[in-house]
Description:
Layout: H1 26-35, H2 47-63, E1 71-76, H3 78-89, E2 95-99, H4 102-112, E3 121-124, E4 140-144, E5 166-170, E6 187-190, E7 202-207, H5 209-212, H6 260-269, E8 278-280, E9 291-293
Parallel strand pairs: 2-3, 2-4, 4-5, 5-6
Antiparallel strand pairs: 1-7, 6-7, 8-9
Helix pairs in contact: 3-4
Amino acid sequence: MTDLQIPADLLPVDGRFGSGPSKVRQAQVDALSAAAPHYLGTSHRKPGVKGEVKRLREGLRDLFSLPEGYEVILGNGGTTAFWDIATFGLIEARGQFLSFGEFGSKFAKAAATAPHLGDMDIRTFEPGTAGPFEPGDFDVYASPHNETSTGVAIEAVRPAGTGDALVMFDATSAAGGLPVVAEDFDVYYFAPQKCFASDGGLWFALMSPRALGTGRHDRCQWPLGAGVPGPVHRDRQLPPGADLQHPGAGHDLPDGRAGRLVQRQRWAEVGGRPQRRAVPRTCTAGRTPPTTPVPM
């Protein structure tokens, strides 16, 4: 069999896949290097750092023409961390997920395996295709705007008949490149390594008043962070990304304790409904997380 050779003039200059991270320009690296002595390694409370965060939030607000009451929230950990945050703090009981690639399926799986939530409705589509939501008895509707693993894009619009449910779009491979209207979403979240040509490990979420908790939830600082409300549920599972007691393990740990995945499965098997072996702790703004897991 003759080896196939791709003509040199057809080879991409940068061989990363189409929906993958953007190239970070050398000028960006040089600018950071020049600012490093007065920026990197300083306190996050310094005016330079706080000013940069303010500039980012204001710039995204202007870019997406956010209405009054919408907020730009950000944190460390990338989109994967935000799935844990959303599973803990934004889904009340049940959600409907559109799964037409790797990213959509991962968020759906995170929610489906959370023992404190009910059954999720995961609508799966063949590679290269996507479909609409089918409104029902759900408090969250979630979908990628542009699926990172396949490049399939949908229109990011609020489905009719969803009532007060939150509408969430994963925009990691869409934000800044595809049109969206703020009134069509409650949470539009992304990591900035695609259209914004930055690095991953950081997430942004454009959140509506409904998602922020106005008229929907009592305020609870953890795990979204200072000033970001979420539902106060003292029997909720500790999100995997914040679980230092059972770090990253899918099986029993060397000391005999259950790993994260095994622990989830055991919780889900108790009485056929998610039940939580935990010590309740008060969750009020600025204080402690809502639960302390008991080793199993």
